Amino acid sequence: MRVRTGSVALITGGARGIGLGIARALAQRGVRLVLTDVDAPALRRSGEELAELTDVRTHRLDVRDRVAFAAVADEAEQEFGEVDLLFNNAGIVPFSTVDEMTYDKWDLALDVNLNGVVNGVQTFLPRMAGRGRGHIVNTASGAGLVADPNFLYVTAKFAVVGLSESLRLAAAGRGVEVSVLCPGPVDTGIVAHTRSLEAGVGLPDDLVPSVEAFLRSGPGIDEVGEGVVAAVEAGKQWIFTGDEVRVWVRKRMEALLESA
Q: In the predicted model, is pLDDT for residue 195 greater than 60?
């Protein structure tokens, strides 16, 4: 889908990290922005920054809240017109060992990382399909293609990949494109942000330094944002931020085929 000056994009988790990188790339192209996030101070700062480049509206939104999601959509379309681009980007990195898993941890992980995407799709896809145009980008992870031991995170991200691939087939005849973003390491601050949300859900202290170092080894958010927008314009189904996952995807596919 061509990213046009004056078109409208809504980005969840748009105040920081990859969401902010995408917002900056779109703002440079004259796209009007609707940013949502649970972090009100970060949302205010990002809104002020981007307002120097384009028209921006900010809304504090917890993507688990379906009623609030619909209200934001209605208000955005009243102010700016039809939303052409939806980036279901909000997410967290919950963690649990097998011995410490609880229903509450499962609920938080799935409600934010999976149901938050579902809520965005359910809110906007019928509107886009009714107009016969639009593009949805759902943020998953490289861990949505190849599993690691963080089963809370992996479960949701595998589901987002499957949702996106299936939805792309289902929506193709309605003029709506669907892509899935599967980032490798990107320095987004998501580890600290998750730990600030709820005690006992984020990564434990002993894992934080190594995970944060791994995330810092990847590209910056602005490079990722430019790559995502370029991929949207090229109509790509899968969007990556580097080559880190390639070798592991190949090994997984080979193992699957050998087991068939």
A: no
